[in-house]
Amino acid sequence: MNRLKTIRGWWRGFFRKRRFNMLNATDLSEEWHVHISPASIFAGSVAFLLTIFIITLSLVAYTPVLEFLPGYRTEADRSRESLIQNIIRLDSMERVMNDMMTYNENIALIMEGRTPVSRVLAPSDSSRISKLLVVPSREDSLLRAQMEGDGAYAIAGQNAGSRRKVRESIEFTSPIEGIVTEHFALSQGCYGVKIAAAAADRVAAIDKGTVVQSLWTPENGYTIVIQHAANLISIYRNLSQSLVTTGQAIQPGEQIGYNAEAENGEVKLFEFQLWSNGKPVDPERYIVF
Fold it and tell me: Does position 24 have pLDDT exceeding 50, yes or no?
């Protein structure tokens, strides 16, 4: 009870007004007075501190007052340099991502049997990207004319032994042993060859390279795509099992999978495609099956 009375007395005293006056030192006459309480002193102090805080925050946010503080300019310059470096890194990462997306789109187009596209950056604006079909090179056209013509390097006029020597000089390994049942024909939408081979026979890589895709689909079974040197891509379809993973380095003749087996009386023929510089080429021109 006494404690409650004490608290009430303190609370009333906190709001009780006191009289402060100013007296003349000569005749002790009152010249000025004011009535204040501890509560008003506390409220005035809080209001003063809040005003100082708002003024300081406004100066920092809307004026360059911090630029005059020692050491702040150096830290600001460091932050600005760090921001510029981060922007440059983001721009480089964006370009790499765009290149990777274009590469994946070309692989998907190859898997669908269509011709991939190449990105060409305009010289005036690097952000504008146009897609143009890959144009055959002059050297490739001359080589085709020599190989398909009647000259000394023509393939059609040579016998089987000389034809085998010309092909073997390219040093490509046959992916599988079998009989070619469907030949390369762009007009008929056939971008490779189909080979009748023994079920579960081994499938080998034609040359050294890197596996860029190894996946399974209900239509084509396991499909393996290998990137070789000189912008050469080889595609192996209708496999029953894949022995490689994406990113794996492959050596010439290394086994990468097994040929498909008969399912429900249906046999899927092994399909092989060869793409050079984004264009399908006839595998029989380079490989002896």
Answer: yes
User: Would you say residue 155 has pLDDT above 50?
Assistant: yes
> Mind listing the domains of the chain with CATH numbers?
2-62 (no CATH), 84-133 (no CATH), 170-285 (2.70.70.10)
What span, in angstroms and rounded, lies between the C-alpha atoms of 60 and 66? 7
* Cα end-to-end distance, the chain, whole Å: 110
The per-residue pLDDT of the chain, averaged, comes to 79
pLDDT at 65 over 90: no
Q: Match 């006056």 to its residue by tokens.
A: 21
